[in-house]
Write a structure and sequence with these properties.
single chain, Aspartate Aminotransferase, domain 1, 4-stranded antiparallel beta sheet, 4 strands, 10% strand
């Protein structure tokens, strides 16, 4: 489901050009489906409760991650927003090697940093949206691999 608005400001001539181009992009690539248009008012009304649940889960998972990795050879990079956390692991393995180790031996899914265009090695990106219990178990497995 996608639904959104774009605000355009600036000098009139630039606004006009931007709006023409945005209209073309929106019509070609970003069109809103009828079900979303019909449900827009209800979706917006429900958004506050959903956002509260997302904020609660992501902040709880992030706090657990930081506490669990404290004193380990891994660390959480600065989190500026969103619902992912990036973990720096020891650099004796690549992103891909760490991700495959966790997946194949511990049944834990983590994304290698190169999926997100990180230039550095040994980074894993973890979803903070994961329900608390599976998230915590995944971090326990990560710590076991680090030992």
């Amino acid at each position: 489901m996608k639904l959104g608005w774009i605000a355009v400001s600036g000098p009139a001539k630039l606004r006009s050009t931007a709006l023409e181009r945005l209209e073309w992009i929106a019509d070609t690539y970003l069109s809103v489906g009828s079900p979303v248009q019909c449900a827009a008012a209800r979706l917006i009304a429900l958004s506050e409760a959903l956002q509260r649940q997302i904020r609660s889960r992501t902040s709880s998972n992030l706090a657990f991650l930081r506490e669990a990795l404290a004193g380990s050879p891994a660390g959480v990079l600065a989190v500026e927003g969103g619902w992912c956390a990036t973990v720096q692991l020891p650099r004796f393995r690549s992103d891909e090697e760490w991700a495959l180790e966790l997946l194949e031996r511990r049944n834990v899914l983590a994304q290698p940093g190169f999926f997100y265009d990180f230039d550095a090695e040994a980074l894993l990106v973890l979803s903070l949206l994961t329900p608390a219990e599976p998230f915590r178990e995944g971090i326990v497995q990560l710590l076991a691999v680090l030992k």
